Amino acid sequence: MVLKTKKIFKAEKESVPTVKKFVEGQLLLWDLHEDDIKDIVLACDEACANIVMYAYKDDKNNSKKNFSIELKKRGKIVKIIITDNGKEFNILNSPPPDIKQNLKGKREGGFGVFLMKNMMDRIKYKYEEEKNIVKLIKKTI
Amino acid sequence: MIKTKQAGNSIIVYLKGRLDVHLSAEIEKELNKLIDENTKADLIINMREVEYMSSSGLRILVAAMRILKEKDRSLRLCALNSAVRKVFEVVELIDMFEVYDTEEEAVQAS
């Protein structure tokens, strides 16, 4: 049996805590282990932060600046599908953070995607019908 | 407004709640103001009431450490919960920071 739920959010910073509540709330209902919930929530936060910060950055005309999160659970496998219609961006191509450069102030960041990759077991990406579709997959305890 | 307390040559800063993209800009602004206004003080950030931190929060702390280092001042963190500590460990930054279990230990380290 597949359990699933989906919600749409506005691509703005204020949505990120709401995303956290939505994902956390649903995973609690599905009775996931606390550690898995924390990992998945953080990964979702990072994915959504990227969308709100960058996906629509130069896009002043897009009246649909939003993104959707779909949560699915089948057995021990949880999948989170995050979709936005901002500019094409493959997160899997993001370079890992350079700690030394970060500490010098020369290249800030890179930690978000790195955290996502470490919190989840697999991440898939595709760009289809002008949408970025990121799939986060975790095998839970 | 972030709560602070003087402790010898250090200013203790009490962060609370979520350090995520929603609030990080405001927090960063306040931290930078504290660093500028207290020109000789080291900073101790008490994270006991920080329930959650994403990379946005981490970025603020990295930036604060860098700014303080440039001014020959130090940044110490204390009272990280396990979830916050995990974020530092995963990105392998835990050893780059001075991290203490308690505020008392962080103060005594100065």
Distance between the termini of chain A: 18 Å
Q: What is the helix fraction of residues of chain A, given as a range?
A: 25-40%
The CATH topology of chain B is given as Transcription Regulator spoIIAA
Residue-averaged pLDDT of chain A: 92
Task: Please count the helical segments of chain B.
Answer: 4
> How many domain units of chain A?
1
The side-by-side strand order for the widest beta sheet of chain A comes to 1-2-3-5-4
In whole angstroms, the N-to-C terminal distance of chain B is 25 Å
Q: What percentage of amino acids of chain B are in beta strands?
A: 25-35%
* CATH secondary-structure class of chain B: Alpha Beta
CATH architectural type of chain A: 2-Layer Sandwich
CATH class of chain A: Alpha Beta
Per DSSP E runs of 2 or more residues, the count of β-strands of chain A stands at: 5
Mean pLDDT of chain B: 94
| CATH architecture level-2 label of chain B | 2-Layer Sandwich
User: Could you describe the largest sheet of chain B, including whether it forms a barrel?
Assistant: 5 strands, mixed
The count of β-strands of chain B is 5
Helicity of chain B, in percent?
Answer: 40-55%
Could you give a short description of this structure?
The complex is a heterodimer of chains A (141) and B (110). Chain A is an alpha+beta fold.
What does this structure look like?
The complex is a heterodimer of chains A (about 140) and B (about 110). Chain A is an alpha+beta fold and about 140 residues long. Chain A has a single domain, classed as Histidine kinase-like ATPase, C-terminal domain (Heat Shock Protein 90, 2-Layer Sandwich), CATH 3.30.565. Chain A is built from four helices and five strands. Chain A has helices at about 15-30, 35-55, 100-105, 110-120; strands at about 1-10, 65-75, 75-85, 120-130, 130-140. In chain A, helix 1 runs antiparallel to helix 2 and helix 2 (about 35-55) packs antiparallel against helix 4. Chain A is globular and about 45 Å long. The model of chain A has no long low-confidence stretch (mean pLDDT about 90). Chain B has one domain (about 5-110): STAS domain (Transcription Regulator spoIIAA, 2-Layer Sandwich), CATH 3.30.750.24. Chain B is built from four helices and five strands, in the order ββαβαβαβα. The model of chain B has no long low-confidence stretch (mean pLDDT about 95). At the A-B interface, helix 1, helix 2, helix 3 and helix 4 of A face helix 2 and helix 3 of B.
